[in-house]
Amino acid sequence: MTEYRITEFTSSDMDKALEAAESLRSIIETAGAEFIDILNCGDGKGMVVAKYSDPATMETSSAVAKQAFGKLIEAGVVDGASISARTGSVMISF
User: Fold this and answer.
1) Which domains does the chain have, with CATH numbers?
2) 3-56, pLDDT tens digit by residue?
3) Within 13 Å of residue 49, how many CA atoms lie on the same side as its CB?
4) Which residues does 64 contact at the CB level (< 8 Å), separation at least 6?
5) pLDDT on residue 1
6) Nearest to 27 by CA among 75, 58, 71, 81
7) Integer Rg of the chain from CA
C-alpha cells in the first residue's frame, strides 16, 4: 500500500534552504522513496512530500529524513522547532 510522509517546516531564507537541500541529494536519494518533492509554500513556509511504495520502506527512511533535516538545521536554513510531520496511506487515487 502506498504511503506518504508530509513534513512542514519554516525557513528564514527559502532559497538557501533549497540550495542546502540540493547539496544533500546523495543522502536523500538513499531514502528509497518513489519521489521526494520540496515545496515552497510562501512566507517562509515549506513542505516536503515523499511517496513510498509501502510502510516498511517509509519506516526505514526515517533515519535518512532525520539526518537530512539535521543538516539543514545545522546549516541554519530550517527552524528545527517548526518541523511537523505526518504520514498516511493512500485510500483512493484519481
Assistant:
1) 3-89 (3.30.70.100)
2) 999 999 999 999 999 999 999 999 999 999 999 999 999 999 999 999 999 999
3) 5
4) 27, 28, 30, 31
5) 87
6) 71
7) 13
